[in-house]
Amino acid sequence: MTNLNSVIVQGNLTRDASDDMKRSTSNNTAFGTFTIAVNRSYKDGDDWKDKTSFIKVKGFGKGYENACKHMTKGSSVVIEGHLEQESWEKDGQKRSELVIIADRFYPSYKKSSEGGNDGQKQAQNNDGFQEDSFPF
């Protein structure tokens, strides 16, 4: 039986995505980690409450590098990717966490004052290919 590991989340960046961008020494590929805050509202009795989850996202490649130019603190972004379990040991304690490995980034672009197409949303995948619209 084939398993499915695919995730799409929308949230706001907690800091500029480019703050942690690094380059590999072997082939100069961009990579990095950033966090998005994802809000969820739910009803508790007669009251509505909000819950925020902070999700770690890892990006790499030309798509990540290009998307970092537009993914700034507080901006809304849609991430399409897959989950990966990371494990490590610290002070003799085993630890792990789930992270999203991003395949595509959909940053919110600001509209230019000249009326250009900077306001058009485009997907950026890890190959640097731009798509004109959301896949859903």
Overall number of structural domains: 1
Enumerate the spans where pLDDT stays under 50 for 5 or more consecutive residues.
111-121, 127-136
CATH superfamily: Nucleic acid-binding proteins
State the distance separating the first and last CA atoms.
Answer: 26 Å
What is the class in the CATH system? Answer: Mainly Beta
pLDDT averaged residue by residue: 81
- In this structure, how is the largest beta sheet organized? 5 strands, mixed, barrel
How would you describe the overall organization of this protein?
- The chain has 1 helix and 8 strands.
- The longest helix is centred in the middle third of the chain and has 8 residues, at 61-68.
- Strand 3 (30-44) and strand 4 (47-60) form a beta hairpin.
- It has a single domain (7-131), classed as Nucleic acid-binding proteins (OB fold (Dihydrolipoamide Acetyltransferase, E2P)).
- A 5-stranded mixed barrel has the order 1-3-4-6-5.
- It is mainly beta.
- The chain has one helix spanning 61-68, and strands at 7-13, 22-23, 30-44, 47-60, 76-90, 93-107, 123-125, 130-131.
Would you kindly provide a brief summary of this structure?
The chain is mainly β and about 140 residues long. It contains one helix and eight strands.
Task: Write the topology of this structure.
Layout: E1 7-13, E2 22-23, E3 30-44, E4 47-60, H1 61-68, E5 76-90, E6 93-107, E7 123-125, E8 130-131
Parallel strand pairs: 4-6
Antiparallel strand pairs: 1-3, 1-5, 2-3, 3-4, 5-6, 6-7, 7-8
